[in-house]
């Protein structure tokens, strides 16, 4: 009996995997949205916080040039050195977001402790650009005073201490949520399509009336979605680690793999349930993609859930992906197993609920 | 004879439109998802934006003197932080749990040092996990120091920024970005509705009846586009209502909002019709609509003028109509000019795209007829 069960599961698993590989639309539906996010974050990360600015230095004394150098070295701007006329033209043609002007009497005024305004003309069309400039100019001024050493009039200094040896770049950071998105999308969409296809091609009758346990059909379908998703997850973890985007070490490989496995299982379970309930490919794709994207964004998206508004955090606490993401971030960025038990319990519980839903949906069809 | 021909063409357009609307209403679940899809895109993108506004930061006040208080006020005034005052131990547990980006410690001798004009170090512990937030902190703390000196010792630190703004008031980032998000919602909804409506004809083999009928290809394309247009107007109206009544964006030019929205929907519908004719499968269209919308949004200058982006992105953006659509809607809602072409030329470009895409759709349908 158990031999028949395993054989039935194996046949369904093999059949679904073959179809997945043979139909490019399945791979496209799985990979394209997540790869788009990856591309976007790669492009977006390089552009974050680098506003184009025209710098007009009217004071050519050593102090004026020191100030100019500080602006040039400040990571916030993409500086174009310009004359006042060139700067105005760039500003008018929307080539720069701001003009910063170091006045001709800069060094004299500073030496005489007179008020020395640095003119900043800003295209304040949204607060994102505007606030970057508003924060970066005082930053440069503080640095200017800091460079004066003990003679500096500004006695308040910053003593920075970073939690980790190297900064984690925005792109590296966003890789974890994108892995989560990819896994969920793959699980839900692939299993959903594989299940709904049985109804669209009317092969479900053969399956349901075959002398095999209903459980074997469910397990086979879920396993097919689970295997493809798990393999994708593993490939990304390995490639990400080899490329230096993430740093997994020792035992944390295991916790990361466990998390990836549970998310894959949950996604596959949801997909089978959706496929059995909706029974058509079209709504499975539309609804599946929408649900997955909602879950993704409500778990913090490419931001940080803990930094969102309280009401969004409250919603996020009911989204299972939040726990998957927490577990994976702990393994990848913190080398920690903090709250791993809670995360595994939530993901495992949700996977079981999803499997039960899939089983019930298929069972309903047998009686129907 | 001429009148009869025109009447027949109008009948074809009307019949195709009504048939498509009926068909969409029959497939209620899908149509509902379709109508709500632009709204989904809008909500999701807004969540994406909300994730990156202010960095949650803990302040440990080891000194409660007047200068320390003033320094805290300066930190607060930078708008870069979401501040909370906590004890040192609470701050440590918050940063280790990943709930805050940084801990700023104002030392016990802060006031004393300031009074004696002695150097004093403000501790800044950063969870340098995400350079977006990390750099915000690294810029905002010096900003607070400058503000502190400007208020407490205006004569000591004489270098100050003197700001001059292009517009009388700032536009909130969310209000700015949601207008761009509206456009991507229209893109997704338009491509998906029109594309699936066209692809359905192939999937159900009803395309043969259409292609072998004496009706002109143009009339079929226009009729099908009008059907999708009606559904998309409903979607766009829902999103627009949320933008105005929930987000609180008050359009500067209402007339432009309506006219540009109709024009933009038309382009995306034409785009969808063309893609539906090419792909012939609804699931491919849905996947493509999603795969297209997200990168298009990010590549088309949603955050500000495209000229502030990298040169490659500027070139790519100007190839596609989404960029011009964002330019038009930002002008309609906020009165901003995001490029130097002028509004009339932007409208012309968008209209050109609409004509081109309609022609492509009709042409591809014609090719299909020949192939059949």
Question: What distinguishing features does this structure have?
Answer:
heterodimer; A: 368 residues; alpha/beta; elongated; B: 372 residues; abc type-2 transporter like fold; four-stranded mixed beta sheet; 14 helices; 70% helix
Question: In summary, what is this structure?
Answer:
Chain A is of the alpha/beta class and 368 residues long.
Outline the secondary-structure elements:
The complex is a heterodimer of chains A (368) and B (372).
Chain A lengths: L1 H21 L1 H24 L3 E7 L4 H12 L3 E5 L2 H9 L5 E5 L3 H6 L4 E7 L4 H20 L9 E7 L7 H31 L3 H6 L4 H29 L8 H28 L2 H18 L11 H7 L3 H15 L5 H28 L1
Parallel strand pairs in A: 1-2, 1-3
Antiparallel strand pairs in A: 3-4
Chain B lengths: L1 H25 L1 H23 L4 E7 L4 H12 L3 E5 L2 H9 L5 E5 L3 H6 L4 E7 L4 H22 L6 E7 L7 H31 L3 H6 L4 H31 L6 H26 L2 H18 L11 H7 L3 H14 L8 H29 L1
Parallel strand pairs in B: 1-2, 1-3
Antiparallel strand pairs in B: 3-4
Radius of gyration of chain B: 28 Å
Supply the number of structural domains of chain B: 2
Based on DSSP secondary structure assignment, what is the total number of beta strands of chain B? Answer: 5
- Please list the strands of the largest sheet of chain A in the order they lie side by side: 2-1-3-4
Strand order of the largest sheet of chain B: 2-1-3-4
Q: What structural class should be given to the helix and strand makeup of chain A?
A: alpha/beta
Number of helices of chain A: 14
How many helix segments of chain B? 14
Mean pLDDT of chain B: 85
